[in-house]
Amino acid sequence: MESLAAQLHVVAENDPKPMLPPELERIIFEMAVEDLVHNLPPTYCALNLQLTARRVRSWIRPLLYRMLKATTHAPKNVFPNFEKYEALKIEEIGPFIKYFIYDVYRSSQSHLLHTLRHCPNIEDLAIWWDANKMGQIYPAISSLKHVKRLYSGLGGLTIEQIQESPIFQNVTHLDLLGLPPKHLLQELKNLTHFGTNTAFRFDEGHSLLRKVQSVLDLILAIPQLQVAKVLHDSSPDAVAVNIDFKDI
Q1: Cα–Cα distance between 90 and 177 in angstroms, integer?
Q2: Cα separation of 121 and 205, whole Å?
Q3: Is the pTM of this model over 0.90?
Q4: Which branch of life, at top level (predicted)?
């Protein structure tokens, strides 16, 4: 009777080899993933491509897991679902993540910090956690060097942290809730696009024109700004004014 090793050798010899050069084969699978993944997170069909072969899995995993989306509003859209698929580990796929969306208001701070620390290559960072407590997660985001787009608040951060942290010195697009102090925005040396939601109300002694002027002063103080967008507050006591500044 043939030994098991001999049988495995025969199987290996008869195993069909790839017909295409590895470089071309990789391009084909990457294009297939891009074609299937019109919108992130990816579909099950796209995820199942990982079962094709080990080499294919290593090629397309960074594409499939480039987004982390955590939200309490639409649990079905959570991706990756670490609770459902326990084999998935943030320590393993964290370096693949480039788009980080976190919309979990009741999540523990330690969980958010742990997740962020394993995602060093984030390019787009959206955190709707607690805009007034961003200073508490500063240790986890301060070293992020690749973030270009930030959607968050700046509450609890100091001028020194803004000046010293790579995440703030490299960011080009910033979307905030409310208007921060003028001197804080001036520290964002590479900021070219700025958006904010704020309210314009008729307060006693303060005309709408003064409100608009204060916003203009804030925006014009940003050195490299190219595009700015300010949306009015939709609350009943706010004046319905929609201001859109472009190519300043």
Answers
A1: 29
A2: 48
A3: no
A4: Eukaryota
Per the model's pLDDT, the better-predicted residue between 131 and 155 turns out to be 155
Determine the Cα–Cα distance for residues 95 and 121; give it in Å rounded to an integer: 6
Question: What CATH code would you report for 66-231?
Answer: 3.80.10
Q: Is the peptide bond before 80 cis (omega within 30 degrees of 0)?
A: yes
Taking 90 as the threshold, does the pLDDT of residue 94 lie above it? Answer: yes
Q: Where are the chain's structural domains?
A: 20-65, 66-231
Tell me the pLDDT tens digit for each residue of 179-234.
Answer: 676 677 888 889 999 888 765 454 544 556 666 677 777 777 787 888 888 776 54
Q: How far is CA 133 from CA 67, 80, 141, 194, 196, in A?
A: 24, 25, 13, 21, 18
Candidates 59, 49, 53, 57; CA nearest to 23 is 59
Q: Determine whether 232 is exposed, middle or buried from the number of CB atoms within 10 Å of its CB (0-12, 13-18, 19+).
A: middle
| Residue 198, helix vs strand vs coil | strand
Model confidence pLDDT, tens digit, residues 165-187: 889 889 999 988 766 766 778 88
SS3 229: strand
Structure tokens at 227: 């595009």
- Angle 219-224-226 (CA atoms, 0-180°, nearest 5)? 70
